[in-house]
Amino acid sequence: MEKIIIFDTTLRDGEQAPGASLNPAEKLEIAHSLADLGVDVIEAGFPISSKGELESVQHIAKAIKSAAVCALARAIKTDIDAASEAIRYAKQQRIHVFLATSKIHMQYKLKKAEDEILRLAVESVKYAKKSCPDIEFSPEDASRTERQFLFRVVEAVINAGATTVNIPDTVGYSEPEEFGSLIRCIKENVPNINNAVISVHCHNDLGLAVANSLEAIKNGARQVECTINGIGERAGNASLEEIVMAMKTRKDIFADLETQIKTQQIYKVSRLVSKLTGFAVAPNKAVVGGNAFRHEAGIHQDGILKERTTYEIIKPEDVGFTGTGIVLGKHSGRHALSERLKELGFKLSDTELDKINSRFKALADKKKNIFDDDLISIVEDEIKLIKPVWVLDNFTINSGTNITPTATVSLKYKHKVLSGKSSGDGPVDACFKAIDKITSTKGELQDYRIEAVTKGKDALGEVSLKLKAKGKVVTARGSSTDIIEASVRAYINALNKIESLG
Ligand code: KIV
Ligand code: ZN
Predict the structure, then answer these.
(1) Tens digits of per-residue pLDDT, 156-199?
(2) Strand, helix or coil at 436?
(3) How far is the CA of 201 from the centre of ligand 1 (A)?
(4) pTM of the model
(5) 3-class DSSP state for residue 164?
(6) 160, 169, 177, 185: which could form a disulfide with 122 (CB 3.0–4.6 Å)?
(7) How far, in Å, is the centroid of ligand 2 from the Cα of 413?
């Protein structure tokens, strides 16, 4: 069996997705889940971009043991110094240097000729190599680079010490057959290619990122760069879960090739990334979408009952999708809850379990059947990565068809309870305005979404919103069987997140 190295760039390219900013605690939480998922390399960030980013990569480097931690750098000494500083304490370190090689980038962006680009590429790899043995080099926009020049660059950086050469389809322009043939040509035309691993990094502008990555693997690539849920710049990157499950499901095509991914963790990591970035997963998204394992049509349901494989090519449990199976109810005790949470992959302290247990009991009073997705939602809502400054105490609303909605909200703040009252365009707006009064904030709501976690009239509603306040933009979620309470919780979570950013 030959291994395909999974290089996850959720925390770097994924975080570059507009509006997907994560705070250091959230990045660390995702890094731990990626390590548990079994990825080989975690690209943790671009340290030169800010002091906070450098520190965040440092925290990840110190904490993660089972995967290499990689930092990105342009082919500039100060970038490489920042990257090297950030990963210094990692058990397995990698520096990823990139420099554009396509005519269009060299002429308009860099204003440099081929020879200078070649010299800078070699010098930067040699420089990075002094502080880190594992160096990856990316000729940015490789798929639009003139081929002979690309071969020269790849050969030169390998001679300079690059251990991985990554071929990015930076603007998602390639088509699968063409991209596969590019990888084959690199293998055939670069004399020292066997001294490095060929990697690929595909963007999804034409919806071909996964197809291009798989074609590259068939033609000799042995590392793929990808992100959870396919998040990333513009239309995103190749999605980790789709690549991994395509290889696993089509063993006939990807014979003798395997990844180390523990696929049963996929659904949980997907939800975590969605929650922390605020990027909802489309219901029809392959592998992790809410509908990926739902069968509505009668003929399909009949087929599934007779033989599952008639309409299902992936077993839901293989990706940790627990679906809508009833797990617990009113009479389930703390022990049963704790066991189920363990099965779902949560490692909780006793205090955390106490909090979840009381939310669970309150929910069980309102809702007969508690599904796994309800439990996951409660855990995500309760287990805060940041110490909350504002905590919901209670609220009341007065609303109807012919009256102006008003809300009174009380929040706990440093052992005191502060209350505020406001009217608004609707009960949710009135609550948000009351919270703004109490917290002296002028919040600007940039996005607000609500969805039911499970089916049924008593389903838990989950609100995700994007809030701009105090010069910062954050995303947050909240859940409850009452959609106004879910909205209030999400708004308070967002304000706490803003406070944590200082
Ligand atoms: O898309 C791209 O080219 C990149 C490089 C930094 C590898 O993200
Ligand atoms: Zn990219």
Answers:
(1) 999 999 999 999 999 999 999 999 999 999 999 999 999 999 99
(2) helix
(3) 7
(4) 0.82
(5) strand
(6) 160
(7) 42
